[in-house]
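Q: Convert this sequence to structure tokens.
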Amino acid sequence: MTPARLALVPGEPAGVGPELCVRAAQQPREDCDITAFADPQTLQMAADALGLPLRLLDPDQRPQRPGDLPLIPVANAAPAIFGTPDPRNAAAVVGALRKAADACLSGTFHGMVTGPTHKAMINAGGIAYSGTTELLAEHANRDVVMMLANDIVRVALVTTHLPLRAVADAITPKALERCLRIVHASLRERFGIADPTICVLGLNPHAGESGHLGREEIEVIEPTLARLRAEGMRLHGPLPADTAFLPAKLAGFDTVVAMYHDQGLPVLKYSGFERAVNLTLGLPYLRVAVDHGTALDLAGKGVADASSLFAAIDTCARLVPHQH
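A:
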């Protein structure tokens, strides 16, 4: 099988992303070819801090030994200082993401693996930025869904980064249907699951208790599920969130769709945070990200855990054969 071609974007240069990329370069892989979109000086500084070899190659060169990393350079405006983010580098962080996304849209790469960004610092640099998921969705002009996954469970979200007070108003028939269609299509096309079974959580405790604890299940969720079931989708729910994640129930589902961020993600992160990854469903290419932040307090110290980045690379490479 031809190796997957993956773009690797480290994210915030002052965080742990650069050193995680250097660690990834130490592992020869047969399932994928990785090319970094990053500032070369920052990567070299990370390698020096770790005491690991790094040889930056032209994009068309193949790695020959541990530490070889093909690179498409995206220069920072200011030298990176581990642990101290600089808003002057915001344009380079966003520029690397956009450049990698362009290369994926053109077919040069099958997918993109991204490290953690620093939202506040990008905004401080004068760039309106709510997250990489939203940036890539706007760049590709696609509706997308955020899915977090580990070896135990997949959780997709109808709403993402909203105040809890705003969640109920955001759970509309249109939003729920859009999410379920993207999840269903992605499970078939990306994951190779021919007839996926999806668990849909209710919004309220006990899934509304027949209307006594809220009417969103009756007025929004149940009618939407019924309409999509009539098209042939295998949808279970709305189920109470407090029991839907029991192992016996999870065994029958290919994914869980949660109504809001903290409804589903605490369970996923508790069940295996180190191997958790963040997938953006609905893009014309694969995008998998680490499921952790910039860890500024660990940057440059050589102690950051690279498990999530390795899992993101593994996941992206594994899902490429299922692309259409």
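The chain has two domains: 1-142+283-324, 145-272.
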